Amino acid sequence: MALLEVRDLEVAFNTADGVVQAVRGLSFDVERGSTLAIVGESGSGKSVATQTIAGLTRGARVSGTARFDGIDLIGADPEVLRRVRGAQIGMIFQDPLSSLHPYYTVGWQIVEMIRAHRKVTKAVAQQRAAELLSIVGIPRAEQRIHDYPHQFSGGMRQRVMIAMAMALDPALLIADEPTTALDVTVQAQVLDVMRSLQERFGTAIILITHDLGVVAEMADEVVVMYAGAVMERAPRRTLFYRNHHPYTEGLLASLPSQGGTGQRLTPIPGSPPSLISLPAGCPFAPRCRYAFDRCWSVAPPLDMVHDDPAHRSACWLADDAQGRRDNQARNAAEAAAAGSSDRTPTPAGVGP
Ligand code: SF4
Q1: What is the separation of C-alpha 320 from the centre of its chain, rounded to a whole number of angstroms?
Q2: How far is the CA of 76 from the centre of ligand 1 (A)?
Q3: Is 162 in the pocket of ligand 1 (CB under 6 A)?
Q4: Is residue 68 part of a domain?
Q5: Is residue 285 part of a domain?
Q6: Residue 170 sits in a domain of what CATH number?
Q7: What is the pLDDT of residue 263?
Q8: In-domain check, residue 175
Q9: pTM: predicted TM-score of the whole model, two decimal places
Q10: β-pair partners for 21
């Protein structure tokens, strides 16, 4: 049994403008000791999904299940959630300053975290805090536990956050854009810390990121989200070398390392749809160069690619490379005939 099994997760918020469908029918498993990366542009629903699983979304309409070690976290008693969060699920966010209290020393905060969940003396908790800071690579950890968050650099603060998240040996670590605010060198160091902790303690990681470079280094499996739903799900190598969804293809084409020296990167044209008024068919259709009639009216299911249960894609043309080539050529020809340099296709019968 997987450590975390998420099935048909739906999260919606009522707003003055209408209902925001932030997460739609999300399902995935996280195996013990493995890393699942959830990628997508801002607003794709990746953070809302994991925050909901951890019981951190307020005022949302939530349905589906998220079974963690046998406990369904969706709709669980707040006391159960509080116990699980921290003790069994650690969390790291992009900005450690928003999670670390500026008024208390980092040692005090780690000690409090440990003592809130474990019956240990202050001295034992303090020793553990110093040990954790040392494990995540903070020099002179015995002294530095007495420092305040502002006395650490950005990279060191993120290490402190990792130490705090790992304080109770959680089975699952949720890391939400943990390296986005860091420069490349520090980012590599922080990823190294996470990897070595995973090897040492067998922790599973859900890594939320928009950075496919980070995914390439860390992930075992990848979920690609767009407009609140999964577009493609696959093991890492499959996703990078045999991806089948046009959105994944677009993300990879806009990755600098994929362009190579002197080659132009190709951004995905347009922007994601409003989650209040989603299109009837495939949500990616307005930006997809392969779109054809059916895409505009019927949303494709997340189906297996080449009968591989580990690889799924929500695209009518997932298995049809020839169909993609034909549609791309037709859409480009139509755009040229319309005298438009915009490659964004228009639905049949709706064009200018
Ligand atoms: Fe593009 Fe159609 Fe596939 Fe959606 S279903 S990604 S619009 S080809």
Answers
A1: 28
A2: 37
A3: no
A4: yes
A5: no
A6: 3.40.50.300
A7: 64
A8: yes
A9: 0.88
A10: 12
